Amino acid sequence: MSTSPDFIPFNEPSIGEEEIQEVVETLRSGWLTMGPRTQRFEREFAAAVGAREAVALSSATAGLQLALAALGIGPGDEVITTPLTFCATVEVILHMGATPVLADVADDGNIDPEEIRRRIGPRTKAVMPVHLGGLPCRMAEIWALAREHGLAVVEDAAHTPGAVYRGAPIGGPCPPHGASDAVVFSFYANKNMTTGEGGMATTQRQDLADRMRLLRLHGINKDGWKRYHKSGTWAYEVSELGYKANMSDIQAAMGIHQLAKVPRFTAERERLATLFDEAFAEVEEIVRPRRQADSQHAWHLYAIRVRPEKLAISRSEFIEQLKERGVGTSVHFIPVPLHPFFANHAADPRNRCPRALALYERLISLPLYPGLGEERAGRVVDAVRDVARRNRVKVFAAAV
Ligand SMILES: *Cc1c(COP(=O)(O)O)cnc(C)c1O
User: Fold this and answer.
1) Does residue 126 sit in helix, strand or coil?
2) Is residue 191 flagged as an active site residue?
3) Substitution site in 57, 58, 86, 135 for ligand 1 pocket (most atoms within 8 Å of beta carbon)
4) Cα angle at 160 between 266 and 48, to 5 degrees?
């Protein structure tokens, strides 16, 4: 990647003085690991999304795995998810000894509820929809399927802090349509809000929250983390085989202030997405990302699609030419069946996903983040327009 000061990076975190001050105060406080700031972050996160419980974790990957573990999913069980996701979504299913089953995507890039229906069988235990790029999945249909077939729903909401579905923030219940068993957010460095590394699982189920709290700290009984505090004691009990997946107060210190900024961050992402939408309306060589009338997009990603029939170059060449013009991009995602770790499952005919594979060949994620600013957004627009124009397929009028 270019190191020129003019190069527009694909992503930049937005960290303010509030986060820095709170981290410094945490370091001075003497309490570094999970403690009072983590508890406050959990309370404020739950309130922000309207969830009953929020459990802070070391990552979203850990959260997805703990949710499956708390639901008792294991060998012999099948979990349906999307092929167009980060490897983590499928990795955790495999770690639990369960079998991932991929349901192909709809035109918006999200898992297609109709494809889920076709793959439900006697072993199906759960569905894991992923809100790709921040666009909420068709949850009402997914919850209806889950009710009909007695399935658990675990949302991979890594991209969706700030998103709203049918009037309810992603992460909480959405009456009268339904609620998921668990919803898992990521605070990785490039996500809509960050703690460097970190994640949060929200749930309406007290039993699941209790189990995830137990499992995140080795299976040590309630409040075991207080054992080094003056109110704690040396005694603790490991009641079952757990994991090491808790958040630290250093991370929570950042999270508290990032969370408070999510409404502002989302508004700025929406403004930039609208600016791109307007600028690209007339560019026939690309298709703009989908919106849904019943939801607020979190705009974690702004992914355009090239139209191969209108362009003389491939998606990858389009990316190279944007880079030559100083614009960093990415692709979300390389479909799961293309990765060697999935080779043992790729041959299962249920995992065929022609729509995801075709869409993948066309996707380019452009820079979109609160600190991008109008000037740099304008340069992204100019670069996309210029690459599209110069590589337009020439249509010659047929001789009459
Ligand atoms: C980033 C991401 C994850 C993993 O998040 P971590 O916090 O890094 O574990 C999972 N799913 C999707 C779709 C992601 O983009």
Assistant:
1) strand
2) yes
3) 86
4) 75
pTM: 0.96
Mutate to test the pocket of ligand 1, among 66, 156, 183, 258 (most ligand atoms within 8 A of CB): 156
pLDDT by position in tens, the chain (length 400): 445 779 999 999 999 999 999 999 999 999 999 999 999 999 999 999 999 999 999 999 999 999 999 999 999 999 999 999 999 999 999 999 999 999 999 999 999 999 999 999 999 999 999 999 999 999 999 999 999 999 999 999 999 999 999 999 999 999 999 999 999 999 999 999 999 999 999 999 999 999 999 999 999 976 656 666 677 778 888 989 999 999 999 999 999 999 999 999 999 999 999 999 999 999 999 999 999 999 999 999 999 999 999 999 999 999 999 999 999 999 999 999 999 999 999 999 999 999 999 999 999 999 999 999 999 999 999 999 999 999 999 876 665 5
Which residues sit with their C-beta closer than 6 Å to ligand 1? 59-61, 85-86, 88-89, 130, 156, 158-159, 186, 188, 199
> What backbone torsions phi and psi does residue 50 show, to the nearest 5 degrees?
75, 25
Catalytic residue among 191, 244, 323, 394: 191
Could you tell me if 245 and 62 are in contact, meaning their C-beta atoms sit under 8 angstroms apart?
yes
Inter-helix orientation angle 17-29/249-280, to 10°: 170
